[in-house]
Amino acid sequence: MPEAVNSSGAVAESRPERRGGLSHIRLFIPKYNSIPFEIVLEWGNKHYLRSCRGARAGVKGAISNYEDYLVKIAKPNIDWLKQFISDDYVSNSGLTKEQIIKNAEANIMSEEAYNAYMKGLNRAFQTVDGVHAKEILEALPKDMAKYAREMTFGEWRFIGPIDGKGKGAAILAGLWLSGDLETLQSLRPACAADIAAGREKDEVIIGVPILITDPKRAGQLRQQLQNLLLHLGEFISYAHFSDEEIKKANERLTKLVQEFVLDNLEVRIGLEVDPQSVTPADSTEVKEIEYKIYSFFQGEERAKKLRATWIENDYPNGVNPADYLGNPDPFKKAYFDMYLDIQVSGK
Prior knowledge:
Strand order of the largest sheet: 1-4-7-2-3
Number of strands: 7
Helix content: 40-55%
Distance between the termini: 20 Å
Structural class: alpha+beta
Number of domains: 2
Number of helices: 13
Largest sheet: 5 strands, antiparallel
């Protein structure tokens, strides 16, 4: 449950009533959100053009030796991993965060890893049959399909419009808390089908967007909140709505807002999960989406061959959310809806 914070770091003892406070909004984060294919095509075009415009020379210039590789490639990856994994995390195989980091360092920071990186770089940018970076060009449909799938079930859930309407919750949250009244035009209300199925979308419960910080810091608040929501939302998805991980995520959101909120305001902010929306990764519903992606970018024949190798389930008896709670094995992966609840009240 979202916690209230103020500039002194105090946590309010009770949550404001649903009809109380100055401002209260619930923002919808869908279990998946199909990214428009034209955006993926634009990404693919830029991906290849970077290769054709001397990117190889630029990369090799930046990574000219093993030390460069450690500083610019290996260490940033390790640092990201340290930030992404919570301190008390234990993997399914019993590895602690410290053990996971040590294993990653042994692999990524080795000279063998550097040599493999440079070998792959040279091969990728070779001109073959008169085609520059032919290997990259031939792999582009597969890369675009992978990118589309990752965005549909990942980042686009948090930043993209739904059915071409509005903005994602990670963007709307910062706009709402920086008092941008145009936020009201960017919300994604429930359509008739959503209402019939009992599904909510974005919901303004009371009030309007409200500036909670110094106007000079509003831009900083928007950017930091968006970045943190992306990070935390994807981690909760990975951890499969573990209560402990959701609590940790909301504590980090609380801490961030606490750094910005004015003395006369209190803000409650937190991510919530709808367990009833759990949809297994091997469900026909998910596989239909993946099939459309692969058909578009790699062709229907290739998509059919891929689908023939997939494990696919109709789940005629329904899905038990408890089967997916926590940090499951790869065969228990699932997707689910979330909400971002934001409440602002005076002190």
